[in-house]
Give the backbone structure.
Amino acid sequence: MDASRAALDLVTAAWRAQVVHTAAVLQLPDLVAAGHRTSTELATPTGVDASTLRRLLRVLALLGLFEGDDTDGYTVTALGEQLQDRPGSLRDTCLLYGEEFHQAWGHAAESFRTGIPGFELAFKATLTDHLKHTPDAATRFQKGLRASSFFFDAVPDLIDFGARVVDIGGGSGQLLSTVLRATPHARGTYVDLEHMLPVAREHFAATIGTERVDLVALDMFTGTLPEADTYVLSRVLGDWSDDDCVRLLHNVRRAMPPEARLLIIERVVHDGPDLLAPLWDLHLFVVNGGTQREYRTYVDLAARSGFAIKDTVALPMENSALVLVPEERP
């Protein structure tokens, strides 16, 4: 019976995710926090029948998003607050995973058989092309990435970046802004493709200002990178093949001064019971054909590119920072 129940919990896990997604779409945590505490009070602002809401709220309370009941009224828990529509919450992440990524995973079996990402099977376009032509999805994607990057706050506490930092494929600019905020003596260079520069510029302007940041549009595989003390590739290599990673690492190696180092921030797959990194590996495969690599694979990529892994720094949420130095350095 225990095995049957465990199997049933696995089979119905997607229901839980979609219930949580529904709560985010209907903005139930915000409405409950604003004083709409029962199904009757929530019916008008959500446009959902009160009897249906009562059933939905009952499950959301069992999942831990709310406390209370429909008679005395619900209150929002700390978990439920993570789905409120506010900066730093995981609501946009929930919307992205419950919509586009949920549809991509619906094609997972075919994706594993054919090697074609489930996202392409669902949307007839790559993730990159879909985001280029679907502004709403692109906004959710960027906000979702930003919200799920809360572990960045721990990075400058654990790593000394030196005076000059180059963030390659810097996305929204969140990691570099976090590093520069924590190290006021440092100067940063943000490197990404041309269409990402306005996104990053807006983020820097709203957080640390733009005086200590140079924004550079560059092909990271072939462009000449500036000299720095620390180079960063955060959540970049998972989108590329091993050979492409070697090309990129070679390009970084050519730019590095003798005493510089490279940080690779990824979820590294290790032997053991931790599930998040192996699950993330499958997610990347389904979404864009990417991967989360094992540590020994990074050792091989480093050696092929003229690097050696000097250290590994554990980060929150099963993330790791691999510290690479030029191979000939002791």
Observations:
- Residues 59 and 319 are 31 Å apart (CA to CA).
